[in-house]
Amino acid sequence: MNDTASNGTAVRAELNIDGRRLSYLDFGGTGRPLVALHGHLSEGATFAPLARALTPEWRLIAPDQRGQGESDRACDYSREGYLADVLALLDHLDLGRVVLLGHSLGAINAYQFAARHPERVSAFVNTEGPVALDLDGPNPLGFLLGLPYGAATRDALVAGLGPAAPYFSDRLRENPDGSWRLPFHPQDMHRSEEQVHGDHWDDWTASTCPALLIHGTKGIIPPEQIRAMVERRPGTVTSELEGDHLIPSTAPDAFAAAVRAFLGAI
Predict the structure, then answer these.
(1) Cβ atoms 157, 150 nearer than 8 A
(2) Which CATH number fits domain 2-132+189-265: 3.40.50.1820, 1.10.10.10, 2.40.50.140, 2.60.120.200?
(3) What is 211-252 written as a DSSP string?
(4) Among 125, 57, 124, 113, CA closest to 89
(5) Using one digit for the tens of pLDDT, what is the confidence trace for 50-60?
(6) If the chain, 266 residues long, is cut into consecutive pieces of 10 residues, what is the mean pLDDT of each piece?
(7) Which residues lie across from 21 on neighbouring strands?
(8) CA separation for the pair 127, 193 (Å, rounded)
(9) pLDDT tens-digit series, residues 202-222
(10) H or E stretch at 127
(11) From 120's CA, which of 101, 102, 110, 221 has a CA 20 to 30 Å away?
């Protein structure tokens, strides 16, 4: 199925993976393929400004990762599950080698995919994706467990979201029966965050392709970890941008400029 996306510049399409829908936006063009992977509580449409900044040299493809946006919920939010979706998307689109770009969860997915499938990745961009996340620390998405997934009306859902409403109210989905829901299930995302924590140094150092590490001045990766990531992985360059963890959304112009400069050099 294909249809024009709400941003007016991309085509929304989907593939079926064992009965589960994986939806994606294809911004089109004849440029080199770049697959962009969003973070938790987000969706592929967040990369629309980047797609505009990179055209016509790059064709940006942005999936709604499992359980988010227009993609179906999954039973599994393991590392292997996310990476299998990336492989299925590349095969579905008959893409050989691509550049991967990811933010947060998506960044970890990107460098882990490059480690497991080096023949499919020519370079990657890691935006705010750590390589070591404390297994015993508190889940930063713990606040989700108090949020409703859906409600009979949009107003009721917004009211139920309380202080979190401003962050999600512009992305709520209407169900066929007229009820409303979040573009993700709170418990799914909490479980996904739990499974992304751990020591990923082996994956970070396993690949040899060019890599760009973008981090914010107020981001979540500790400075000592950033230094070690560059020192321990040859071919990695960094770009520090003024901003927080949500750089693609809060500093879109600087983010696009950093990505464009890196892509122009590889």
Answers:
(1) yes
(2) 3.40.50.1820
(3) EEEEEEEE-SS-HHHHHHHHHHSTTEEEEEEEEETTHHHHSH
(4) 113
(5) 999 999 999 99
(6) 52 97 96 98 97 97 98 97 98 97 98 98 98 88 97 98 96 97 98 96 98 97 97 98 96 98 96
(7) 16
(8) 17
(9) 999 999 999 999 999 999 999
(10) strand 121-127
(11) 221
Token pair in block for residue 172: 């709520």
Closest by CA position to 105, among listed 42, 20, 35: 42
Laid out side by side, the sheet with 58-63 consists of: 2-4, 11-17, 20-26, 58-63, 32-37, 98-103, 121-127, 211-218, 236-244
